[in-house]
Write a structure and sequence with these properties.
2 helices
Length: 97
């Protein structure tokens, strides 16, 4: 894969850095998410300043990422407790025989 790929955002052709492990199709999907996010913010907040839209979109994605990390950590902790419970039950069951 090349070191960068081009895509249009808000009518501007932008060169994006390629990301190892992602195809150009996947990267274009990400660019489409950016377009959708910017359009949603523009319509809901009635913002026309392009740089402000970009910052608000970045903020929105950062909030989503933060929430996903929090949920992931909570799930990991719950899974760890569940595994510990299962190991304790298994040890108890094996000890009874």
């Amino acid at each position: 894969m090349a070191n960068e790929f081009e895509a249009r955002v808000r009518g501007r052709l932008i060169k994006f850095p390629a990301v190892d492990g992602l195809t150009e199709l996947e990267l274009n999907g990400i660019v489409n998410l950016i377009e959708e996010k910017i359009k949603h913010i523009e319509e809901s907040l009635n913002v026309v300043d392009t740089s402000k839209l970009a910052i608000l979109a970045a903020y929105d994605f950062a909030v989503e990422l933060h929430n996903l990390k929090q949920r992931s950590e909570t799930n990991r902790e719950a899974d760890g407790r569940k595994v510990e419970e299962m190991v304790a039950k298994l040890a108890k069951t094996l000890g009874e025989k």
